[in-house]
């Protein structure tokens, strides 16, 4: 039986132009919300440092750290690393490795991802993103210079700080 025109049109390709739609890429986190997350993390770190300083053994280490700091900002002082890194890992290590978030980033609904959007591995997060900046802390002067350059680079179009560039990461909004 011959097909009519209405039956032929049912099987015809669409006449409208149809483009493949790529999934929307998550938005980069704003500078202000990243600052807010960093402030939350700093308050948590400060509270943890204060709590550990109340323990008698840590109090004696803290006093040695303060005496070394009085010698000047270019003095070798590894005590900050010996105390700070374990405290940081104790508080922020697990959420960073499993979720790509610090507690501040969780509260602000932000996440650290690779620049291609994939999950960040532990070495890249803890070693490159946070570790290199922490190592500059053995000399306060280096830490100040690194911190200044690191924070000013967020004003680039990519909104990546120096630690983001080193680790090939970016911070996105959830």
Automatic annotation (TrEMBL):
GO terms for cellular component: plasma membrane. Keywords: Cell membrane, Membrane, Transmembrane, Transmembrane helix. It is a multi-pass membrane protein. The keyword S-adenosyl-L-methionine does not apply. InterPro entries: Pra-immunoreactive (IPR051791), RDD (IPR010432). It holds the Pfam family RDD. The chain crosses the membrane at residues 38-59, 79-97, 128-149. Residues 29-167 form the RDD domain. It is found in: Cell membrane. PANTHER family: PROLINE-RICH ANTIGEN HOMOLOG-RELATED (PTHR36115). This is RDD domain-containing protein. It comes from Roseateles puraquae.
